[in-house]
Fold:
Amino acid sequence: MVSTQLSAERQRSILACIRKSIRERGYAPSIREIGEAVGLRSSASVYHYLKQLERTGAIRRTFSLARSIELNDVVSATERNVVSVPILGRVAAGQPLLAEGNVDGYRALPASVVGSGEAFLLRVHGDSMVGVGILDGDQVLVRQRDTAEVGAIVVALIEDGATVKTLRRDSQGYFLEAANPAYPPIRADRLRILGQVVGLWRDL
Structure:
């Protein structure tokens, strides 16, 4: 009875920890953070309780993504209308887009802004898009897709990294155009579109 009671109390503590993190930060805590919050030193112990909570239907998890714990119970309207969007630093070729090594953190954004489908924020490096108001250090909101209309601002993977540019086309084919005359157009034999820029976040 003591063991069952202790287990139930621990589950309630873990649920409270998850709810607090989602409400305050917009995303779930890490396994380590859960352990520290409820007094569990072992990651295996945290996983054990999370599996119990999954079996009861209190939470659900996506194992391919970090910090992917979601609550299944009734939440406030504020929590329902907020989406946790991953922030990517530099995207390396040969890795899944949302690989843990690419994700610098998460930002809570209104669901109405993010829209439907997968989305991510990409941290901008450099001044190649200053002509359209995208500055070094900005985070662009990107709707994940592998195609885009000519004239759209896209995130594309070229050689060994991702870049933010405008997609153009001429008689020679597709190319990427900067919004700064100091940067020449980029032509690539294999141009991979990662998504289309639909918004911008700037910390003041």
Notes: The domain at 2-79 is CATH 1.10.10.10 (Arc Repressor Mutant, subunit A). The chain has two domains: 2-79, 81-201.
